[in-house]
């Protein structure tokens, strides 16, 4: 069941990019409660439009298509793009060029609030024995993390220059349950994902705010105190999965970079053939 998130605010039209992806499919069923019309976009199949939905496929690297996508939109939840580590060129086109097109279209069409799906991989080369917040320097763990760092810097520029407010969500690991011991720290439940996105859409003043996307887990590497004004209050915790997760993964190699660094497996991926 979708998370109950009381808010009197309702948008006329919300745009959800990346609507065919894992988190996009989950939010597609939830965001309709907060808008009259939910415009959905992806390059993957979106199925049939339900009541109150508009389907508008667009490749993010296609500037003209993205410009059309932003017409008559009140706010954007931007999940679109490459969501995993990999070769640079596809990430460049979807995550860097595509995010630029999204902000330019937003500027031209007067969109004033964007919720940008950044990633914990912006800071993946901090160690798992460190607690960090969004004011600390970025330490991307791959091309994907670099692309999300670019997106956060772009969001700051478009706020400073054009007044477009953004909440950049450094999403941890949003799955039905944590898959390994790393995810006991990074897990974000789907209900808390909804709470986070709705808080980011409806907080009165955000400027450009960076907030980590995690549930109320016992083990935490990320301190969201600087983003308290967003009003996000997670209600779930990975702790109820701990016994099962530790039984599946009873030992860790403390010399393995995957164990040492917060980015986990992303810190060792590549290099890639050109």
SSE blueprint:
Elements: E1 11-17, H1 22-31, E2 35-41, E3 53-55, H2 63-69, E4 75-78, H3 88-109, E5 113-119, H4 143-162, E6 165-171, H5 183-186, H6 190-202, E7 208-213, H7 242-248, H8 257-260
Parallel strand pairs: 1-2, 1-4, 2-3, 4-5, 5-6, 6-7
Brief summary of the model shown:
With 274 residues, the chain is α/β, with parallel strands linked by helices. It contains eight helices and seven strands, in the order E-H-E-E-H-E-H-E-H-E-H-H-E-H-H. The chain has a single domain (11-268), classed as NAD(P)-binding Rossmann-like Domain (Rossmann fold, 3-Layer(aba) Sandwich), CATH 3.40.50.
* Average pLDDT rating: 96
Low-confidence stretches: none
Helix content: 25-40%
- The CATH topology turns out to be Rossmann fold
Query: What is the makeup of the main sheet?
Result: 7 strands, parallel
Give me the CATH architecture, please: 3-Layer(aba) Sandwich
- Overall outline: globular
Structural overview:
This protein is an alpha/beta fold and 274 residues long. It has a single domain (11-268), classed as NAD(P)-binding Rossmann-like Domain (Rossmann fold). The chain has 8 helices and 7 strands, in the order E-H-E-E-H-E-H-E-H-E-H-H-E-H-H. The protein has helices at 22-31, 63-69, 88-109, 143-162, 183-186, 190-202, 242-248, 257-260, and strands spanning 11-17, 35-41, 53-55, 75-78, 113-119, 165-171, 208-213. Helix 3 links the parallel strand 4 (75-78) and strand 5 (113-119). Helix 1 (22-31) crosses helix 6 and helix 2 packs across helix 3 (88-109). The N and C termini lie far apart (45 Å).
